[in-house]
Design brief:
The protein is mainly beta. The termini are far apart. The chain has strands at about 5, 10-15, 20-25, 35-40, 45-50, 55-60, 70-75, 80-85, 90-100, 115, 120-125. It is built from no helices and eleven strands. It is globular.
Length: about 130
């Protein structure tokens, strides 16, 4: 069974940077969209960024625009999240997600994604 595996989380001071990576274990997937979500304790899972391979479109949560960059390699199903100028409010478990059936152009809905990783913890100290 294919799973997505995230890496790159850790502890960083406010203003610092981290780079998250996500890749499938096992066989590759035929993905249309790959995305990053995050979930802080006591809060709902929140969309962060998505890359739509077929439309050539990238979408970000407003609060991370200009600080985070999503990128990746379609053929390898690899996606990255470069996070710069991290703030304490960015602290969360970050999840990678993949959409293999193309659920349209609304990227922020977690329900459209059919593969998820286990998450990687990002902690930002002030």
């Amino acid at each position: 069974q294919v799973q997505l595996v995230e890496s790159g989380g850790g502890l960083v001071q406010a203003g610092g940077s981290l780079r998250l990576s996500c890749a499938p274990s096992g066989r590759t997937l035929s993905t249309y969209v790959m995305a990053w979500f995050r979930q802080a304790p006591g809060k709902e899972r929140q969309f962060v960024a998505a890359i739509d391979w077929s439309a050539g479109k990238i979408t970000y949560l407003d609060s991370v625009k200009g600080r985070f960059t999503i990128s990746g390699h379609y053929a390898e199903n690899v996606v990255y999240l470069q996070m710069n100028n991290l703030k304490p409010e960015d602290a969360a478990v970050y999840y990678c997600a993949a959409d293999t059936s193309y659920g349209g152009s609304f990227y922020m809905s977690a329900s459209r994604y059919d593969y998820w990783g286990q998450g990687t913890q990002v902690t930002v100290s002030s």
